[in-house]
Amino acid sequence: MLPTLFDIPLPDWLPSCIQQAGAIKSYGVMMMIAFLSGIWLACRRAFRSQADPDIVLNLGFLALIFGVAGARLMFVLHYWDTKFANKASPLAEVFNLSNGGLEFWGGPLLVIPAGIIYLHFVAKVSVRWYLDICLPSLAWGLAITRVGCFLNGCCWGAVCLDQHAHGQDVNTTVASVPWAVTFPYGSPAMRQQYEFGQLPLPKELIYTFPSGESMPYPREFIQLAKEDNGETRKKLEELKREKYEGIAKQAVEYKHSTIRNVEKHCEQYGITLDQLASLADHYRSRPVHPSQLYAVINAFLISWVLSTIFYYRKRHGVVLGWFLILYSIARIALESIRADNPLDTFGGITISQSISLCTFIAGVLWLALMYRLPQFSPRAIPYVPEEDDAEPPKAAATK
Predict the structure, then answer these.
(1) Model confidence at 399, in pLDDT bands (50, 70, 90)?
(2) Most confident of the following: 119-133, 214-228, 253-267
(3) Counts for the chain of helices (H) and strands (E), in that order
(4) SS3 211
(5) Would you state the pLDDT for residue 315?
(6) Which residues contact 278 (CB under 8 A, 6 or more apart)?
(7) Is 394 helix (H, G, I), strand (E, B) or coil?
(8) What is the C-alpha to C-alpha distance for residues 49 and 154, in angstroms, rounded to an integer?
């Protein structure tokens, strides 16, 4: 787990919202790699099939915009009551992507209609042909993005403990599969396991709110207090002596109050900051299925299958149908071992499984439609680069 790939050093007096911009997230980097490599592969297929790579490039930028917007919109609608409605500024939280919050199905459900509209009404080219070119790259990009999910610690799998292990108790860590993974203290998987009563923690690691609710003490707060060495307090005293007011002072005051809360927590239980940090490092999540890596494997396989179908297909437009069918089946199976998505109130399935059932049916209907249309799209005209359009200069006449 590596949510932040690296940090760009920024002054401590800057507000936290600006300082967060200096943290280069692994998920964002993997999204960038997925986008660039997916576009390159699609342009390569366009060259090989004599399609216009410029149109593919335009589709790529549309996919980037509408894909992120659709994935975010679906996440917001899915988790509005639990993650947004109770915030001081729900609308501002909707646009705050620093903590993640994207759901894949929202992307294609917005990108595919937008791409069809662009191809038919703007570019005025074959919709079926260009969708065939681009769909393998969508699965390819998903595979690389899921690597970002693994580094970020999101989309985790269900607990997989060996129920027949000797000495089974609440503290067992014997996994039922050898490739199971554990996530560090403070990870989303570990916090959920604590909330569900699957992972007991010592009282020194529990923070209790005045309302009586409890949670694992935030790891980032512990690390901040451990690494500070009194620098924030000195900085705050210096600003007070200079009677300085402004954003810088507010940022330092917030940081100092956070550190003081951790120090008071340590004083309450008679331990040092180093002991608290060491205790946190000792506790990890229970073993879970690496569902993110399962998703990487099946997305790469789907991309390879779709690419093979593209080069051997005998009818335009079938690649989209096969993408909807194959990914829907894979997602329904994968959701059965994921633990991050809550079950819907109807049917006992997740919202992604509900959507996948619909998209599976849509894929079957799309293929049926493609086999009723002409075999080849009338707009699928081979692309000729502009430099090849001009007639070659005639040779000078000779006597």
Answers:
(1) very low
(2) 119-133
(3) 15, 4
(4) coil
(5) 92
(6) none
(7) coil
(8) 38
C-alpha to C-alpha distance for 202 and 278, rounded to whole angstroms: 13
**Amino acid making up residue 118:** Y
Classify burial at 218, counting beta carbons within 10 Å of its beta carbon; exposed 0-12, middle 13-18, buried 19 or more.
middle
Secondary structure letter of residue 6 according to DSSP:
E
Which is higher by pLDDT, 283 or 245? 283
Residue 153 DSSP SS3:
coil
Distance CA 33, CA 46 (A): 20
Residue 397 binned pLDDT confidence (cut-offs 50, 70, 90): very low
Say which amino acid occupies 320.
L
Contact yes or no for 370/319 (Cβ under 8 A): no
Q: How far apart are CA 38 and CA 61, in angstroms?
A: 11
The pLDDT score that the predictor gives to residue 395 is: 44
- Is the CB of residue 176 less than 8 Å from the CB of residue 161? yes
Task: Report residue 304 as tokens.
Answer: 């390879």
Q: Hey, what are 252's tokens?
A: 């330092």
Half-sphere exposure of 92 (CA within 13 A, CB side): 5
> Is the pTM higher than 0.85?
no
Q: How much of the chain is helix, strand and coil, in % rounded to 5?
A: 60, 5, 35
**CA–CA separation, 18 vs 10, rounded Å?**
9
Angle of the 273-282 helix axis to the 219-228 helix axis, nearest 10: 140
- Return the amino acid letter for 64: L
Give 192's contacts (C-beta < 8 A, 6+ positions apart): 156, 339, 340
Q: Which two tokens stand for residue 66?
A: 């509408």
Dihedral, 199, 183, 71, 47 alpha carbons, nearest 10: -150
Q: And the tokens for 99? A: 């903590």
